[in-house]
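Pipeline run #58 for the internal structure catalog. This entry was flagged by the ingest filter as a single-chain record with no existing model, so it goes straight to prediction. Upstream metadata was stripped on purpose; only the residue string is passed forward. Reviewer on rotation: M.T. Logging verbosity set to normal.
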Amino acid sequence: MIKKFFLLIGISVCAGFLSKAGGFNSHQALAISIFLVSVLGTLLFWEFRLSFVFLGSSALLLTNTINLESLIKFASLDVILFLVGMMVLIGLLKESGFFAWLVSLILRIRNLTATKFLVSVSLISALLACAVDEVTSIIFIVAAVFEICDYFEVEPTPFLIVSVLATNIGSSGTVLGNPIGILIAAKSGLTFEDFIFKAFPVMLVCLAALIFIVRIWYRKPLKELDQKIKALGANEMLIKLISVPPERELKVSLLIFGVTLFCISLHHRLELLWHLEPNTVLLTIPLISAGCVMIWKWQRARKFIEKDVEWWTLLFFMLLFAQAGALHYTGATDTAAGYLAKVSGNNPLNLLVLIISVSAIGSSILDNVVLVTAFIPVIQSFKNIGFNLQPLWWALLFGGCLGGNITLVGSTANIVALGILEKERNIKLTFFRWFWVGLAVGIVTTVIAALMLIILPIYHA
């Protein structure tokens, strides 16, 4: 641990000096060094990530690198409050048995085959991630995969990997699928409708590519599952699946969640109708719904806030956003944007490819929220150079989501699923068993997304 600590300090100090030598001023170099400490500290000392952002944010204030008012502004409280509201709603759905009911309902497939199972798991994983979030989705999908694989006595690992890959792809389809979606929407002005019409189609094409790749990659496990299905029969398996009837509490929970999604989907039109600032309805609807939930379930209200809201993660996000804002405040991102524009030859298409490539590679190493947080102020700075930001926002979204499939630690969904696999089945996945299939899927889907962003005119409007 001591060696890692000195390595962290050494890299950050060197980055500060190199930044100063590269044309950044003292405050810019300090902001870069502190942000790098938080990012690398998160990577090397995951358990202490909140400590790093606490100390880093304090250092920015004490050195007058950023003032208190700007730090609070860049903390993106609007995004944090949106996530708090959604987490309360997810807690309600968990308590009402929604996920167990949904999985058991959808997986009742007639004439089940291995291919049908593969396709259904991929579709359910992706669409559920679109509706809730990738972490909540993967927890329940993994439980369903274990249930079926246990019955047919086949190894669950290939199907678990497929479900995680599909979850990461699906998380790019809507604002709700991944924290970086709401973060990008809040900073770019993109609406829920924009995601549906522009991100969702790309997600579906990437999902089809995933199914094609894994159908070939895992042909042996699929052949084994087919043999087991023929030997044991598919109908008996349905008895083992959890079956939760849609009782009154579940119906009310679904109604609240459905109304929330409906209002979020129409937020841009409602804001225009009521003459509100952009994203006002998008960011307040989850809070209104969460308030109604806590009135309805007043005896459980404290539990929803204390247990279902991930305060540790939200505080980390908030202070990391503030540190990224310091890069913008000091002008470091303007300088970085100038360098990137120069590298791309001031060509918008080259810049798009550069953004999606760097974000995909970076997301395979770092948590995609960390990476996107760093990139957002840089992309905002491209406006001052005269670039159209629309395709760059989409490039950042798809690079951040699709790149997470490349390695074991590329996204939170990966880590959660593999942790469950190790705990429940005592199976520890090696780096390369994931890497080769993840790399294939990551490269193919990222290339598909890049080509669609380049070729289709709707992304340049």
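catalog note: The two ends are 50 Å apart (CA to CA).
catalog note: The chain has a mean pLDDT of 87.
status: ready for reviewer M.T.
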